[in-house]
Inverse folding.
């Protein structure tokens, strides 16, 4: 992780995109010990993020959004970057699901695909955390922008989101 840019608690944070600022504020309010980092290049995939941070791809807390058919609610599943979400397992927990397009994701979360954070959404989401993240002591999640990431533990993710932990991967 050598060469990472300055942390988000510097004055330059105010010059960052709104999504990144929203996540920074939410983490500060929650008393999270690690401010988001704004990387030099966008990391829209788990592999890109892992490469930029010098970590295993499984340590990336990947955000996947679905649309619940019964009420059009956004369902956020946070899992390891090296795993694939099993839509049937998620549906068994929250009800039948449909695909979420980019407009739906932006409208419900406030973030664009590739930067969906597990916190600071513009509307309430149904959130699930996959237990596979608990293989690691340290993970990294998107911070509201494709260039933004923040460090946390799986336990901190569970506490920040208030989400239940389940087996939701293939």
């Amino acid at each position: 992780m050598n060469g990472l840019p300055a942390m988000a608690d510097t004055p330059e944070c105010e010059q960052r995109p709104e999504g990144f600022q929203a996540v920074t504020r939410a983490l500060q309010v929650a008393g999270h010990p690690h401010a988001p980092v704004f990387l030099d290049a966008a990391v829209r995939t788990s592999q890109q993020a892992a490469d930029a941070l010098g970590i295993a791809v499984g340590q990336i807390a990947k955000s996947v959004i679905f649309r619940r058919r019964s009420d059009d609610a956004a369902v956020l599943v946070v899992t390891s970057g090296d795993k694939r979400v099993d839509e049937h397992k998620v549906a068994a927990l929250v009800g039948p699901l449909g695909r979420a397009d980019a407009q739906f994701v932006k409208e419900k979360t406030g973030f664009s695909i590739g930067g969906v954070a597990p916190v600071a959404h513009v509307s309430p989401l149904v959130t699930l955390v996959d237990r596979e993240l608990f293989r690691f002591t340290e993970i990294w999640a998107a911070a509201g922008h494709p260039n933004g990431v923040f460090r946390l533990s799986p336990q901190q993710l569970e506490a920040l989101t208030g989400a239940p932990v389940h087996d939701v991967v293939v």
Summary: Residues 1-9 have pLDDT under 50 and may be disordered. The two ends are 30 Å apart (CA to CA).
